[in-house]
Amino acid sequence: MEASPPSQRGSDAASDIGNDVFADPPSNNLRLELDPSGLEEIIEYESGGFHPVHLQDVLGDRYRVIHKLGNGGFATVWLARDLKANATKYAALKIIRADASGDDCPELLLGRLQDSEHICLAVDQFKMDGPNGSHLCFVYPVLGPRASDGAFHAYDDLDEILHHACRSVTAAIASVHALGICHGDLRPSNILHPVTGFDGLAEDQVLAILGEPSRNPVLNRAGEVNTAPTAPGYLVYPVKWHTVDKSLFLKTPRLIDFGESFDVSSDAPEYPGTPPPYRSPELILEDAAGIPSDLWALGCTLFEIRTGRKLFDLFDDEDDEYLDAMCQILGKLPEPWWSTTWERRSVAVHRNYHPSVAHNARSLVDMLAPGLWYMNRKTFHKDIPSEEKPVFADLLGKLLEYRPEKRISAKEALEHEWFKM
Q: What is the pLDDT of residue 84?
């Protein structure tokens, strides 16, 4: 759900914790009192932006907000109780920003899908007017942690769970591509495990499981709590799923967030929203978004789900650094990318590469082996059996072919030997 490109207006002011005087105030003259990490940009609460939401608000005359599930560049997502359901029932309410709520809203493309066990489809939708404009609202089943977060890391059948998660996301992408839709933002944070066990519980029981919502006051220029209608009086930190009982999570994840998706028969977006670690070389060098760039992102995503770490995990989010990292693993870029298109290659490249211009399976096998990344014990990492590594590396190599036309399709990937192991 990240914007493309995300707005950076007022980001310095928003992080100026404890300072009532703005050096460079955002246009709405608002800031957060506490740490803004994990929250949407406060500057986005203005005309055309997010709808201001407070806990216990009833939206669409039906959904009462009780917690925050997430946020991105295009929407905020809330846990809400359905007040018109026959029994106590909960749902995820996704509120699209006003300037993205037109008839061309990418989320509407999912209307082509009638049923899919691998994709999270809306069960209801409505329009809502607010101080910042008119907003599309989609109601989804409640989803929890992302597939690569290691929610099941203590389970004896972890290999099977992760393998099944990889199959689920591959099947989801195959279904989307069959309809002529490019997802455009495929990554593990958009592959979430469903949550069960809330329906039938009272609101205070659900909050006892999730933890009480934590608020970050929104302050105006004078340092007072905001009362202007265009922004809320506070932002809410999302649920921390790592603190929730893992038995509530279903093992088969769902693909979400079609905010960057588009019909491949029409023009691709001018600013493709795929984050740097999942961007294909043609996306970096030519802004060429499409089915092939989705397949590259699928390869990176499968690696991350299976291992718990990124294939291209760099300190600097710079295009040259990612191209350099690709070459270290996959060999030199093909022409004319290597000699002509990559203008800063002579500056960025400081080492020799594998002689092959195609993928180097041995290098991908090496990336699946334990290494220095295990120094970070705060994140989930998974060892892979030795007999599985070359087979998995072969699948990854077929999805990470430099030439877009040489990448196997998601449907073909499902027939790969690794999915039959």
A: 96
